[in-house]
Prior knowledge:
About 30% of the residues lie in helices and about 20% in strands. It is of the alpha/beta class. β5 (about 160-165), α4 (about 175-185) and β6 (about 190-195) form a beta-alpha-beta unit. The longest helix has 18 residues, at about 290-310. The chain is globular and about 55 Å long. The two termini are about 30 Å apart.
Amino acid sequence: MKREEGITFDNFNYQRGLFATLSGYFVNHQIGGSKKGLENKMKQTEKFRSGYVTIIGEPNVGKSTLLNAILGEKLAIVTPKPQTTRNRITGILTTDNYQIIFLDTPGILRPKYRLQEHLIKAAFAAADDADVILYMIDVKNLPPPEFGILERIKKSGGTLILVINKIDLIPKTTLLPLISSYSQKFDFQEIIPISATQGDGVSDLLDLIVKYIPYGPAYYPEDQLSDLPERFFVAETIREKVFLKTKQEIPYASCVLVDEFKERERGKIYIHATIYVERNSQKGIIIGKGGRTLKEIGQLAREEIETLLQAPVFLNIRVKVKENWRKNERDLKELGYGI
């Protein structure tokens, strides 16, 4: 089977935060991100449900953590820093009774540069495709309801569910008044409290989602976890390590592009990637004294990528400067954003 065209995982240890091992094969045909035109290749009963669910909200409310918790796999990278997610991450959950395609989206905020404008557009576009929309909030950092955002996503026509996350961090006695307050402020179809990190309420949320998913055939093979290629997850793994090993503006001024991905003799995979930053000073910080920081980033990334690909990996990472790439439309398109 041809690599890089659909990805499947199993046997994931969620607590350790490692990528799952590959369980099956990479689908031998290109599958798009829209539900239109996708062919069903699975035998289904007339009671089978299938649909799209978009997870949307402000930065750092736990959207990617929720996706990983639902799938039981580390599909989306997660760091303590806000605005980690930059792409629409597709996660596919299939059982005997339903198939749900989850769309994890970048956090919605007031944009300061072109990159953030594109990320917000991607988030709203994902909501427009959804049968169910999960609007997530962080119970420890509750802003006033963003009625502009809520009205915008409600126009998509999907069932709107408010997900109140991180309930493990507050007294349980405060939950009912909080739910009552939000139910009065906006017309949500459902409101459910959860803790994505602890798993509290996640199965209840999933049961609730299934109730609003329409009947229909599966869009993807039953063992497929995402429609994104291997090299996407490789780039994301490297970018996660940049977030974890650097501080302040450096993670946000950096992006990763996989330039080469080849399988060589004896199954060893050669990967060449470039970390782009906006200034020479940032390049120096990522490389570190004597190349120490870049070496740590590469070592952590290579170990996780080998687990992902189930093959030995030679990983070569360079750092280059592309001045003000977050504000330049041409650079954004070249780096995979803005399309």
